[in-house]
Amino acid sequence: MTAKISITVSVNGENHAAEVEPRLLLADFLRENLDLTGTHVGCEHGICGACTVLMNGDSVRSCLTFAVQADGTKIETVESLGDIDALGPLQEAFREKHALQCGFCTPGMLMTATDMLRKYRLETDDDIRDGLSGNICRCTGYQNIVAAVRSAADKRDAK
Amino acid sequence: MKPAPFDYVRASTVDEAVAALAASNGEAKVLAGGQSLVPMLNFRIVDTPIFVDINGIQGLDRIEETTDGGLRIGALARHFALETSDLAKDRFPVLHEAMKHVAHLAIRNRGTIGGSLSHADPAAELPTMAVLLDAKIITARASGGREIAAADFFVAPLTTTLEPDEIIVAVELPGLAPGTGWGFEEFAQRRGDFAVAGVSAIVSMDGQSVTESRIALMGLHDTPVRAHAAEAALLDDGIDAAAAAARLDAEPMNDLHGSADYRRHLAEVLTRRVLTAAMERAAR
């Protein structure tokens, strides 16, 4: 019934053209159509933050964004931050501070922290907690995630 | 949890958007930031056959000063843009403070001012700010737009006076007198959650006496409301009387986040705090 729509999206620097149903969520487009399964789908209603990606540089919930709305935009997912052989600086901070246990929330934490580190000064740990408040972790108790973002913020400021 | 199929129309001008809404005979809805709408679609609480996406309308996201020292905020301005607007911080520090309490960064990046007003959650910051700051809501429709006073705009939880084929294009906040004091407090279980209750106020003073005040209650009625009895009590009898009156101005709900009694208690405590802060900040 509903007509498919042609979109072109830059994902992690690579252009992808596709025909999608309007109701296809960006999270499912990334995972199912592009096999980029680093973006995790948790609550599917914007509460848990696991599906957070960057859209034109701003963190967004990919479960609250339709793929058609990403047409012509630049999407960055956790896969853009680094890989197992060459972790990015934020991923390295998470490894160093033991900021993950099961790892389900980690892609969302990393993408949220990436945006926070660009937009806010994060002078206090309370600022970091505020920034992470939209991302739920059921393992760590958050302490080590805050420590990892603190470490990344200090390295950012030392530059 | 996937949305039901729908047709998707991309509008690149306000005229295109209202034409598409009018042509749908009440079936289409506007899709802006989607931060409240898409969760309802994912749960299939909302079943709308046509969406008109207004995200591509250029220039609808401007935040501009008006000649009376106020602000005109385009409907597509994102929460993050308003949170970080120097103009808003300078003209309306109470609004700047309120924006810090809106949800989380990823939501603020995407959610729009017009969307928050149209969604009309009685515990949301933006609708309450519209009521506190006497906002004018400017709309468009194929048959002609109008201006609606915030006091007349919110009808019930998630219900406004907007017609099905009408969209918000901007909200205008009239300028405040120089030296106006302000206060904003909300109580939420976690940072970024909807408030269990909140109170905000602006106050003008002459020496030790209050000459004018506005007090707005959030999450304490089925819409954001002015606490008129508390405002009158402040002029006549001071902060404690105003706080006690705010408790009576509130008509809160019982729900799993707090009982009505607890919310009335919050109304009193938060009113005392915001008025104390506002009177300290007011120029005398």
Please describe the structure with a list of short key phrases separated by commas or semicolons.
heterodimer; A: DNA polymerase, domain 1; 5 strands; elongated; B: 284 residues; Uridine Diphospho-n-acetylenolpyruvylglucosamine Reductase, domain 2; Uridine Diphospho-n-acetylenolpyruvylglucosamine Reductase, domain 3; Enolase-like, domain 1; 3 domains; five-stranded antiparallel sheet; four-stranded antiparallel sheet; 12 helices; 36% helix
Task: Walk me through what this model shows.
The complex is a heterodimer of chains A (159) and B (284). Chain A has 159 residues and is an alpha+beta fold. Chain A has two domains: 5-80, Beta-grasp domain (Ubiquitin-like (UB roll), Roll), CATH 3.10.20.30; 89-158, [2Fe-2S]-binding domain (DNA polymerase, domain 1). Chain A contains five helices and five strands, in the order E-E-H-E-E-E-H-H-H-H. Chain A has helices at residues 26-33, 89-96, 106-119, 125-132, 143-158, and strands at residues 5-11, 14-20, 52-55, 58-61, 74-76. In chain A, helix 2 crosses helix 5 (143-158). Chain A is elongated and about 50 Å long. The model of chain A has no long low-confidence stretch (mean pLDDT 97). Chain B is an alpha+beta fold. In chain B, the strands form four sheets. Chain B has a five-stranded antiparallel β-sheet. Chain B has a four-stranded antiparallel β-sheet with strand order 11-12-13-14, with helices on both faces. Chain B has a three-stranded parallel β-sheet with strand order 1-3-2, covered by helices on one side. In chain B, a hairpin with a 2-residue loop joins strand 12 and strand 13.
Q: What's this model, at a glance?
A:
With 159 residues, chain A is of the alpha+beta class. Chain A has helices at 26-33, 89-96, 106-119, 125-132, 143-158; strands spanning 5-11, 14-20, 52-55, 58-61, 74-76.
Helix-strand pattern of chain A, N to C?
Answer: EEHEEEHHHH
Termini of chain B, distance in Å?
56 Å
General shape of chain B: globular
Instruction: Give helix and strand order of chain B, one letter per element, not per position.
Output: EHEHEEEHHHHHHEEHEEEEEEEHHH
Biggest sheet of chain A: strands, sense, closure?
A: 5 strands, mixed
Mind summarizing the main beta sheet of chain B?
Answer: 5 strands, antiparallel
Q: What is the third-level CATH name, the topology of the largest domain in chain B?
A: Uridine Diphospho-n-acetylenolpyruvylglucosamine Reductase, domain 3
